[in-house]
């Protein structure tokens, strides 16, 4: 039977449960992943597929239309399908926006729980879109007493979040414990010279070549982590460009989620850490499976 999982399934989800599902998924055999990009000017169609032996398969199609902001419509839309690991039968249609929200935020939340200082409270959100809003909920679950500030090139969007708004990005960066970037930037917004000892950066926005949110100096100064080497190193401008310039080498990327969790960790209170969220389809698969299972078992939990 095909399971239809609507947005109402969110009432049955929690962040600790998702993090446990992501960690369990990374203990299974490494995922087989393939991406297909189509472009028309600023618009993108992204077709992502993943298969994890023992878990199942997923196909996620996303359309990215930046111009939708002016129309009052979501800039990202799409569909998520899950398939049985043994038979290949379609098992679930899961709400696209629900999967995207929890996968994207859960990815960076898992990094932050491992890399940010345990006493982190001052969190700067760079960008004021849908992802930034979901990160407020996600970070709040893991960092009690978190205080948020938002900066955006679109001040009206920042004000609409109902949080304190920073006027000067450099000043805001220097004061933060955690800096979360969720923009559509093609040129670095964050300068490495602004970074302070003990900070953690979650880089979310850049998802393809030609997109960056931090400069080479930031990449050189920080200990670097990614969710998956396979979906970031040679696919996203945040890594492609500093690798090409010689600012960093592949060996500077210390760990991804498939490595021993002991490697994916902060060593001292003074070091600067950066985690690049590549959001590969294997993470969609782990997240969508978690959501579908929670929805399927909702009657038992109630």
Task: Give a brief rundown of this model.
The protein is of the alpha/beta class and about 300 residues long. The protein has eleven helices and 13 strands.
How is this fold's topology laid out?
Elements (H helix, E strand, L loop, with lengths): L2 E3 L9 H11 L6 E9 L2 E10 L3 E9 L3 H4 L4 E8 L6 E5 L1 H20 L6 E5 L3 H13 L4 E5 L3 H6 L8 H7 L2 E4 L18 E4 L12 H6 L1 E4 L2 H4 L4 H9 L7 E3 L17 E4 L4 H16 L1 H4 L1
Parallel strand pairs: 1-6, 7-8, 7-9, 9-10, 10-13, 11-12, 11-13
Antiparallel strand pairs: 2-3, 3-4, 4-5, 5-6
Helix pairs in contact: 1-3, 1-10, 3-4, 3-10
Walk me through the structure.
Strands 8-7-9-10-13-11-12 form a 7-stranded parallel sheet, sandwiched between helices. A 6-stranded mixed sheet has the order 1-6-5-4-3-2. The chain has 11 helices and 13 strands. The two termini are 22 Å apart. With 302 residues, it is α/β, with parallel strands linked by helices. Helix content is 33%, strand content 24%. The model has no long low-confidence stretch (mean pLDDT 96). Helix 1 packs across helix 3 and helix 1 packs across helix 10 (281-296). The chain folds into 2 domains: 3-100 and 282-301, ornithine cyclodeaminase, domain 1, CATH 3.30.1780; 104-280, NAD(P)-binding Rossmann-like Domain (Rossmann fold).
């Amino acid at each position: 039977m095909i399971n239809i999982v609507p947005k109402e399934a969110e009432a049955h989800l929690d962040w600790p449960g998702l993090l446990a599902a992501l960690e369990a998924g990374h203990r299974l055999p490494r995922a087989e992943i393939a991406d297909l990009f189509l472009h028309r000017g600023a618009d993108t169609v992204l077709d992502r597929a993943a298969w994890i032996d023992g878990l199942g398969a997923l196909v996620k199609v996303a359309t990215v239309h930046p111009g939708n902001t002016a129309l009052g419509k979501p800039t990202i839309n799409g569909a998520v399908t899950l398939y049985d690991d043994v038979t290949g039968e379609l098992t679930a249609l899961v709400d696209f926006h629900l999967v995207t929200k929890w996968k994207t935020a859960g990815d960076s939340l898992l990094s932050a729980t491992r890399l940010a200082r345990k006493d982190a409270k001052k969190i700067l959100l760079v960008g004021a879109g849908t992802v930034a809003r979901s990160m407020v909920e996600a970070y709040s679950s893991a960092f009690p007493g978190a205080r948020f500030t938002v900066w955006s090139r679109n001040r009206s969007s920042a004000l609409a979040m109902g949080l304190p708004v920073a006027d000067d990005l450099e000043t805001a960066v220097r004061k933060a414990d955690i800096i979360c970037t969720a923009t559509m930037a093609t040129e670095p917004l964050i300068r490495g010279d602004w970074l302070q000892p003990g900070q953690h950066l979650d880089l979310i926005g850049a998802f393809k070549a030609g997109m960056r949110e931090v400069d080479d100096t930031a990449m050189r100064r920080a200990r670097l982590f990614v969710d998956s080497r396979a979906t970031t190193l040679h696919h996203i401008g945040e890594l492609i460009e500093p690798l090409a310039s010689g600012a960093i080498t592949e060996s500077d990327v210390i760990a991804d989620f498939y490595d021993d969790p002991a490697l994916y960790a902060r060593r001292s209170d003074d070091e600067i850490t950066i985690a690049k969220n590549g959001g590969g389809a294997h993470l969609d698969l782990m997240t969508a499976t978690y959501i579908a299972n929670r929805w399927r078992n909702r009657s038992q939990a109630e």
